[in-house]
UniProtKB/TrEMBL annotation:
Pfam families: ADH_Fe_C, Fe-ADH
InterPro entries in the record: ADH_Fe/GldA (IPR001670), ADH_Fe_C (IPR056798), ADH_Fe_CS (IPR018211), Alcohol_dehydrogenase_Fe (IPR039697)
Organism, as annotated: Anaerorhabdus furcosa
Domain named Fe-containing alcohol dehydrogenase-like C-terminal: residues: 185-380
Residue ranges of domain Alcohol dehydrogenase iron-type/glycerol dehydrogenase GldA in the record: 8-174
Family per similarity comment: Belongs to the iron-containing alcohol dehydrogenase family.
Oxidoreductase found in the keyword field: yes
PANTHER family reported in the protein's UniProt record: ALCOHOL DEHYDROGENASE, ALCOHOL DEHYDROGENASE 4
Protein name as it appears in the record: Alcohol dehydrogenase, class IV
Alphabetical UniProt keywords: NAD, Oxidoreductase
Length: 383
């Protein structure tokens, strides 16, 4: 049986990749919409990009209205900015939110259909050329055919997908991650780890996705604590950028499972950043599926060298000890520590469990997941 493996058309990776690659890029237009957030402007990263664009005689307009959970209303504003300024291609610079927003803007520029239509249809239309420059090591959006946008009318996160959403050019420059605060480094790094482990333990896993996933997992267990404890460690930052890319490639082709399915409703209803909502769910969700994924977790344990046992059950247990230690090292809180309105959370468990199940991600797990299972995990973690 053969497998298709999807990746961005062109990837530049390494320290100073942005400046090094700029002269070799054949830009598709002369007027770029830059999709970003206010923090990128304050950090001066936008100035770095716009200076390079000016040197190439490329005009640009900056759309910096993206927050950590992009919404359909934000996307509509971005579309208006793109069209009113006659832009002809798009650049996203920032974390996963600006990159996701860029993809959704490109979709909406190309289609008269509302974004919500694409929760049940693959996006397959021509769209503006897309260049992405990630500034965190975690979301993997620079490598994927997915984007997640909040539907404000229903308080749900829409998972939108299609190979056409793969960026045309991804520029992965670890230098941009040096300013990432330790807490964000931790949550985005755990997001990448979720991508890799979920892809490796997915029903849709294939040889190449598993190869990328295992290598990402090994890099993250070694380098994420180093980045957390010393944000200026450029070698560890580079390894984390590579790991995030590998993890993105793996879940782009094997999908995610229970963690992401349960994470999206928390983000939509309580506006918890995506990486953090994944992090607080990770241990419980993986623990729930381990009965049917014991061999997979045992293999991970041997790859990260946290076990010497040839017995899968023992090796699986050793993996969970290593995961627990990693989460503690990174000071990942419990779910009930980040939700202020617990009565409201409890009142929404039925809705969130249904939304999580309906997303389709839990069904990729090796263990069969029901709505009642999801309710039980939410209840266990909030109380």
């Amino acid at each position: 049986m053969s497998n298709q493996f999807l990746m961005p058309s062109k990837v530049y990776v390494g320290i100073n990749a942005l400046e090094d690659c700029f002269n070799s890029i054949q830009f598709p237009g002369t007027n770029a919409l830059i999709v970003t957030d206010e923090s990128m402007v304050k950090l001066g990263y936008i100035n770095t990009l716009t200076t390079l664009l000016k040197n190439k005689n490329i005009a640009f307009f900056i759309f910096d209205k993206v927050n950590f959970e992009p919404t359909d209303t934000c996307i509509n504003e971005g579309v208006i900015t793109y069209k009113s300024n006659a832009c002809d291609f798009i650049i996203a610079i920032g974390g996963g939110s600006p990159i996701d927003a860029m993809k959704a803007i490109a979709m909406s520029v190309s289609s008269n259909r509302p974004l919500s239509d694409y929760t049940s249809h693959v996006f397959d239309q021509a769209r503006p050329f897309m260049i992405v420059i990630p500034t965190t090591a975690g979301t993997g959006s620079e490598t994927t055919q997915f984007t997640i946008i909040t539907d404000t009318s229903q308080d749900i996160k829409m998972l939108l997908k299609g190979p056409k959403l793969l960026p045309d050019i991804s520029i992965i420059d670890p230098s941009f991650t040096l300013s990432t605060p330790s807490k964000v480094t931790a949550s985005t790094g755990i997001d990448a780890l979720c991508h890799a482990i979920e892809a490796y333990t997915s029903k849709k896993a294939q040889p190449l996705s598993s190869l990328y996933a295992l290598d990402a997992i090994k890099k993250i267990f070694i380098n994420l604590p180093l980045c957390f404890n010393d944000p200026t460690n450029i070698d560890a930052r580079e390894q984390m950028s590579l790991a995030a890319f590998e993890a993105g490639c793996s879940f782009n082709n094997a999908s995610v499972t229970l963690i992401h399915g349960m994470s999206r409703p928390i983000g939509a209803n309580f506006h918890i950043p995506h990486g953090l909502s994944n992090a607080v769910l990770m241990y419980a969700c993986l623990d729930f599926v381990k009965t049917d994924a014991q061999e997979k977790f045992a293999t991970i344990a041997r790859e990260i060298k946290c076990t010497s046992s040839s017995d899968n059950k023992e090796a699986c247990s050793d993996f969970f000890l290593a995961l627990d230690n990693l989460l503690k090292t990174l000071c990942i809180p419990a779910l009930n520590e980040i939700i202020d309105d617990k009565p409201n959370f409890n009142s929404l468990i039925d809705k969130m469990a249904k939304d999580a199940y309906d997303s389709g991600s839990p069904a990729n797990s090796l263990r069969k997941i029901t709505v009642e299972d999801i309710k039980s995990i939410y209840t266990q973690l909030i109380n």
